[in-house]
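Supplementary Note 3. Input sequence used for the single-chain structure prediction.
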Amino acid sequence: MLAASVLWGTTGTAATLAPGVGPLAIGAAAMGLGGLLQALIAAPQISRHAARLHDQRGTVLLGATSVAVYPLAFYSSMHLAGVAVGTVVSIGAAPLASAVIERVMDGHRLTRRWMLAAALGLLGTILLCVAEASHATGSTGHGSVATTLLGIGLGLVAAATYALYSWAAHRLITRQVPARAAMGAVFGLGGLLLLPVLLTTGAPLLASWSNAAVGAYMALVPMFAGYVLFGWGLTHVPASTATTLSLLEPAVAALLAVLVVGERLPAAGWMGIALVIACLAVLTAPTATLRGSRRQLRNTLTHGSKARVTSHAD
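The predicted structure, written as discrete structure tokens, is reproduced below.
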């Protein structure tokens, strides 16, 4: 999951290397071609488990529709609000959306730990958005603020659809559909839905070798390889944990945006990213670590008591 998040974190910076290609074309090429490639590789497994996939066709269709909407909203969000903000909003809000989906669809309880992490992640996302909107106001005026807010709104759409297709893929896996078949079916059908968008907007991808290279990289590395890793991860963890682990992606994206793209993020924005990372730390800290700390405390107290008893006996 973390390796996939690192790969995904490079997508925003890679997209800026093809400035003549619009966000819809970038998104359609990345997720569309990457999804079709996943389906091609998984074709034997999809064929073998076609009956189970047909029984779960509602889940497959929900996941595929979300796969088609996600990249269009995500890349448009980065285009309008900037790489750092678009990524943080899109990915930072996904664990919240994912937990709500699991609560409504599967009846999962929302724990105190999750609520603390959710509060940290939401506060961090809001702080980042406010900082970026203030920066836009000071530099380029009201038009920029409206553009940033529209980008943030699209980022929330991306977060919801990311959570939905993660939940759909995990649901298929838990219902005895192998990960490769589940991911291939959901992403392959999503790729088919994106083909009309790619055919309509994708001409600039063929205008130069550099644009074509960016499109190929996006489809093969973050989307194909990244989602293969993501599918493997979904066999071991629920969708809410998967989307939370992907909070590493905004940190990678923000760092690359500053180092490579030259974006400037206000101090409050960095504080917001730090809170999102804190949210990740709270949700992923293993329970065993907390138990170990309590055990160590008990041992210390026990040894201390024994030492006092021995001292009195002497």
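Confidence is low (pLDDT under 50) at residues 307-312. The two ends are 57 Å apart (CA to CA).
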